[in-house]
Amino acid sequence: QSQLVESGGGLVQPGGSLRLSCEASGFRFGYYAVGWFRQGPGKGREGVGCIVSGGGQQILADSVKGRFTISRDNTKNTLYLQMNGLKPEDTGVYYCGARSVSFCPQESRFGSDIFDDWGQGTQVTVSS
């Protein structure tokens, strides 16, 4: 049974940084594309980014380009989200998700429906 467990969330001031981690188990992590989506208070789910199985290509939502970076370590079955220059509008619950294919969608605007499985989420709050 597949499992995805996020960690690293917390409270940070605007302009600050956080690094989220997602540990995967129960499936062949290195075979599949994985990524992140988020849900802010009173908002729908928004795709943040996706990285292909080998890690050589990623897509990011326009709202986070230049600030966020996705990476993965297939030897550790772990996905990361490095978030810099955080803004109050980045506040929300962040989820890591796994696809059932090795590639990511070509468009940068996507929702949680591109993922077939996801974790419980970790809260990120950006506030002074």
Quick gist of this model?
The chain is mostly beta strands.
Explain the overall architecture.
It is built from no helices and eleven strands. It has 128 residues and is mainly beta. It is globular and about 40 Å long.
Shape: globular
- In DSSP terms, counting alpha (H) and pi (I) runs of 4 or more, how many helices? 0
Structural class: mainly beta
Global mean pLDDT: 96
| Termini separation | 40 Å
List SSEs in N-to-C order.
Answer: EEEEEEEEEEE
Percent strand: over 45%
Rg from alpha-carbon coordinates: 13 Å
Main beta sheet: 7 strands, mixed
Low-confidence stretches: none
Key phrases:
128 residues, four-stranded antiparallel sheet, seven-stranded mixed sheet, 11 strands, mainly beta, globular
